[in-house]
Amino acid sequence: MELTKNFVKAKRPCADGYRWFVRNRQDGSDYQRLLDALVEAGRVDDACWLLTQFGPTDAVLAVDAIDAEAVVFAGSLLVRGGIDVETTVRAGGAIQAGGGIRAGRAIVAGADIVAAGGIHCGGVLETAGDIKAAWGIDVLDAITGGGNLKAGWDVLCGGKISLSGCALVGHDLIAQAAIHCGKSIRAGGTLDARHTIRAGHGIECGASIRSGMHLEAGWGIKAQEAILAECAIKAGEGLQARDEIRAGAGYGVYAGLDVRVDAWPASAKVLAAAKPEGLVSGWWEEPAMR
After folding, report:
1. Is the dihedral of CA 257, 261, 267, 269 positive or negative?
2. pLDDT, tens digit, for every residue of 215-225?
3. Is 17 exposed, middle or buried (0-12, 13-18, 19+ CB in 10 A)?
4. Torsion (CA) 247, 248, 249, 251 in degrees, nearest 10
5. Are strands 221-223 and 239-241 parallel, antiparallel or unpaired?
């Protein structure tokens, strides 16, 4: 893609960025060459702005490893080893690494982000596709995905997790803000968020579920230990915990919200060590006397 002065000016760049472009461009400037020049000049934000304005390409950069201050590539990155950047790694297409991916500020892709190791980011992790890590994922700020998130180990997030698809995590899934998934959430260990946990489908956890606000699922919610929320607990189908199910003071526990009342005994059972206080809906049976 060739970027002319009029073409760039039509996107209304900042005055400083446009002056840099006029001074440094070559006639008929090549898109990727311009992105590289901006990164080399330390203008990573300008390179990211340019990529946002003009979009991805079909190009593929295949290399053994990446160790750099920053990388902004209009196509897809195919790295046989690991990716290690001080600030930002951004691709218009996919980012695939045969090792881990580490960035000090941001990891952003227009398609899938895939790592054969772990993913560590000191800022935001964002993609229009899936996020997959064979090991764990540790992100200081938000995680945003247009597809599914899958990690073999823990997922630790210092901000909000927002996914269009599922979250499938081998061990703990912990966020310092909300967790919103368009489909299911499944964690092999603890599921913990400081704000609302919401899943369009079901929630399943190998330990306890703890929500700092509401806990909501379109289908059922199941935990091997306890289900705890500081506000309401709402499930479209059943609720099941080996230990207690407890909503916040003054809030209710709701099961079977998307099930006919006459189907509650089969599809909206509430199972726990004791009847939840504030149970508003769902089918509870007292344990048989022994």
Report:
1. positive
2. 999 999 999 99
3. middle
4. -60
5. parallel
Q: What end-to-end distance do the CA atoms of the chain give, in Å?
A: 77
Mean pLDDT by 10 residues, the chain (290 residues): 48 53 56 89 91 93 97 98 98 98 98 98 98 98 98 98 98 98 98 98 98 98 98 98 97 98 97 97 76
- Note whether 270 and 239 are within 8 A (CB): yes
Task: Report CA-CA distances (Å) from 54 to 14, 23, 38.
Answer: 15, 20, 15
By the 10 Å C-beta count (0-12 exposed, 13-18 middle, 19+ buried), 243 is classed as middle
pTM over 0.70, yes/no: yes
Under DSSP, is residue 37 helix (H, G, I), strand (E, B) or coil? helix
pLDDT tens digits, 50-96: 899 889 999 999 999 999 999 999 999 999 999 999 999 999 999 99
* Cβ proximity of 132 and 144 under 8 Å: no
